[in-house]
Amino acid sequence: MAMEIAATGRAVPEQRVTNDDLAKRIDTSDEWIRSHTGIGSRHIAGEHTACSDLALEAAKQALSMAAEREGRTPEAAALSLDLILVATATPDHYGTPSTACLIQGRLGAAEAAAMDITAGCTGFIYGLEAAAGLLAISGARKRALVIGSEILTRFTNWDDRGTCVLFGDGAGAALLEKTTAPAEGPEKRGLLRTILGADGSGAEHLIIRRGGSRLPYKPGETVDIPPHIDMNGQAVYNFAVKAVTGIIEKLLREEKITIDDISLIVPHQANARIVQAAGKRLGIPEKKFFLNIEEYANTSSASIPLALDELNRSGKLRRGDLIMTIGFGGGLTCGGNLIIW
Ligand code: COA
Questions:
Q1: What is the homologous superfamily of the domain 190-340 according to CATH?
Q2: CA-proximal residue: ligand 1, atom 9 (nearest)
């Protein structure tokens, strides 16, 4: 049975920091950042905001959207959840408790199982497939909330201009449920096909090195900078262009369709140049890709659900549209979904 995205939500911190703001603090410029990445600004969470705070806001929005349609309260919609998955690289706490458990508690989703997914910026795509599988395997489970949420700016080395200009904070949520739509014909909708991939030999290229069991902080050690993202930009760039082209080709081939059948591609928003390079290689016009990176920068696992909610709420996704998501990032990981909206 197919699973459909029945509702969406998003949360973005109020504080908006432009490239010009950054250029006052570090050796960079609006021109460099825009021309190398397509980024114009990023939103940064206040010091008391954690991953679960943004995730909760996005979750509540998605539940309110569903509750309104169903004529019940958001609290009742929360009680209808069987599963909560949070994809994040920047959880409230490392190890335990999962951020998903924090959301489960704060939503009062008493019937829901909860766990986190660590798959870098591909986390939401992994999350959708994991949720779809867990719903499919049990007749009792009907609804899952899949959230991507990140406070990346707290794990950013603000002295490294090569990485600190790239990241922002945000969250997006999608309510996935067993569809009541017919399995075939023009009314068919839902998650059609997913590809997931990983290349652990590239783990070093995008890594938070300190703070885990491999390199813990030691008692008495002076911590000059907190755990932060180290990145080999060129290696990640090359992997990303290959991943985007490979996944688009594979999804089209496996589903026996052409790019003309796709209404919109929603890629992970890491760098507009990655998307442009992949589009050029495949001869896909730029307007086929949805980009909001200019406003939000790279929000990792939040970027795709955040974009989906923006598109959904602005009426740019119509029932029956075939959309493709593409993700890539730390791990290294990559993946993509084909979804009939
Ligand atoms: N402002 C100004 N100059 C900068 C800069 C900044 N923010 N960051 C780097 N530079 C400088 C470098 O110091 C270097 O100067 P030099 O030639 O004098 O040594 C020059 O710009 C070129 O640096 P380079 O790292 O080669 O740039 P690039 O064209 O490879 O672009 C990235 C860098 C990070 C934008 C690019 O590699 C990239 O997007 N990689 C993928 C990153 C990504 O998407 N990560 C997340 C994946 S989920």
A1: Thiolase/Chalcone synthase (3.40.47.10)
A2: 162
268 is annotated as an active-site residue = yes
How do the domains of the chain map onto residue ranges? Answer: 2-179, 190-340
Residue 199 confidence (pLDDT): 97
Instruction: Find, among 287, 285, 155, 303, the residue nearest to 240 by Cα.
Output: 303
Annotated catalytic residue 292: no
Q: 125 alpha carbon to ligand 1 midpoint, in Å?
A: 26
Which of the residues 51, 101, 121, 334 is marked catalytic? Answer: 121
User: In this structure, what is the dihedral angle of CA atoms 169, 235, 338, 341, given to the nearest 10 degrees?
Assistant: 20
Question: Which positions of the chain have pLDDT values less than 50?
Answer: none
Q: Which residue among 271, 276, 293 is best mutated to probe the pocket of ligand 1, counting the most ligand atoms within 8 A of its Cβ?
A: 271
Structure confidence at residue 182 (pLDDT): 85
Q: How far is the CA of 228 from the centre of ligand 1 (A)?
A: 17
Tens of pLDDT, residues 304-313: 999 999 999 9
From residue 136, alpha-carbon distances to 7, 84, 188, 220, 322 in Å are 19, 15, 17, 50, 22
Note whether 2 and 190 are within 8 A (CB): yes
How many angstroms is it from 233 CA to the middle of ligand 1? 6
Burial class for 170, CB neighbours closer than 10 Å (0-12, 13-18, 19+): buried
Sign (positive/negative) of CA torsion 142, 302, 273, 43? positive
For ligand 1, whether the C-beta of 237 sits within 6 Å is yes
Asked if the domains 2-179 and 190-340 are classified in one and the same CATH topology, the answer is: yes
Report phi then psi at 11, rounded to 5: -145, 135
| 212 Cα–ligand 1 center, Å | 27
Average pLDDT across the chain, whole number: 96
Ligand 1 pocket member 165 (CB < 6 A): yes
Give, for 38, the enclosing helix (H) or strand (E): none
Task: Give me the helices (H) in 24-110, please.
Answer: 30-37, 51-70, 74-79, 99-107
- Is domain 2-179 classified as CATH 3.40.47.10? yes
